[in-house]
Design a protein that fits this description.
single chain; alpha/beta; Rossmann fold; 8 strands; binds S-adenosylmethionine
Length: 296
């Protein structure tokens, strides 16, 4: 995730997960991401794909997360807008005929991958609060020739789907944005059918992070609204009614990994400001979270 469009003077994030950037600022940021990709796709359509300098390319964050085989079957617009921190579909063991929702679907990358797994008998909803992302995701679905997917503008705190209507809740690096994470977990549990599963990529903290180190850390790994601790993630899921909760670490952010990420995103100034903080080493990381709604 890149935060280059967010204002420098926004409030400093806190490790406790309290509000930092406003929802409007986050929405504006992702609207810009989507519009940039849409504009590049339009330029590409006008000037002919190979010759455009600014063709959306696979140098996006997608290539760190998805296999070449998966990427080869996705439109450029979905790859270019990818801002996740994992590959939840690869972990969800989706079966033909299942109904899936992707919370914070962005440019639609995971929803489109999921749509292929559930096949024509299944269905995928992508929910995102940013209108421009919905527009981009819809265009990507057309480009991917995928018909069993629908993108709906809405929030993950008030998911626009009925009770017990989906088999699987997916999400990729979005719940950390919510000002009310327990409510998101309750909503996820509400819309799942009994026995349904929650398979989510996200970023969590494992140890307290000093307030002044948090902002640069977020600029490198992307945790705009403040990540929650692994422990409070588990508690919120339990309180929402989930069982069999597992948090599986994906990438633990050591200083070496943070440096690599900062270098790749041209954000070395943020890394330099935390490089001497020993407490940053391994204090956060991306995880895959599995949880189940009880059968009854
Ligand atoms: C980091 S991007 C991830 C997008 C996508 N999951 C992916 O992997 O590329 C975050 C997305 O979540 C959306 N988002 C953030 N907070 C949200 C909320 N409270 N409700 C709905 N969508 C939200 C943003 O509009 C944005 O498209």
């Amino acid at each position: 995730m890149t935060l280059e469009h967010l204002p420098e003077n926004a409030q400093t994030p806190s490790a406790e997960g309290s509000s930092t950037y406003t929802t409007t600022e986050v929405q504006n940021h992702y609207a810009r991401v989507a519009l940039d990709v849409l504009e590049q796709l339009d330029d590409q359509a006008i000037c002919g794909c190979e010759s455009c300098d600014d063709t959306p390319s696979r140098t996006s964050e997608a290539k760190e997360l998805y296999t070449r085989e998966i990427m080869d079957n996705l439109p450029e617009g979905a790859l270019a807008a990818s801002r996740g921190c994992g590959d939840p579909v690869a972990k969800a063991q989706l079966a033909p005929g299942e109904v899936v929702v992707d919370l914070g679907s962005g440019g639609g990358i995971d929803a489109l991958i999921a749509a292929r797994f559930v096949g024509e008998a299944g269905y995928v909803y992508g929910i995102d609060m940013t209108y421009e992302m919905i527009e981009l995701a819809e265009r990507n679905a057309v480009d991917a020739k995928v018909a069993n997917v629908e993108f709906v503008q809405g929030t993950i705190e008030e998911i626009p789907l009925p009770d017990a209507s989906v088999d699987v809740v997916l999400s990729n690096c979005v719940i950390n944005f919510s000002d009310d994470k327990p409510r998101v977990m309750r909503e996820a549990c509400r819309i799942l059918k009994p026995g349904g599963r929650f398979v989510v990529s996200d970023i969590v903290s494992y140890a307290p992070i000093a307030k002044d180190a948090f902002e640069p850390l977020c600029r490198i790994v992307g945790c705009t609204k403040g990540m929650q601790s692994a422990e409070s993630y588990r508690t919120a899921l339990e309180d929402a009614g989930f069982v069999d909760i597992v948090l599986e670490p994906k990438t633990t952010y050591t200083l070496d990994i943070l440096e690599q990420k900062a270098r790749a995103k041209n954000r070395m100034r943020f890394f330099e400001s935390i490089a001497d903080e020993p407490a940053i080493e391994g204090a956060s990381g991306s995880v895959i979270i599995y949880a189940y709604k009880p059968q009854n």
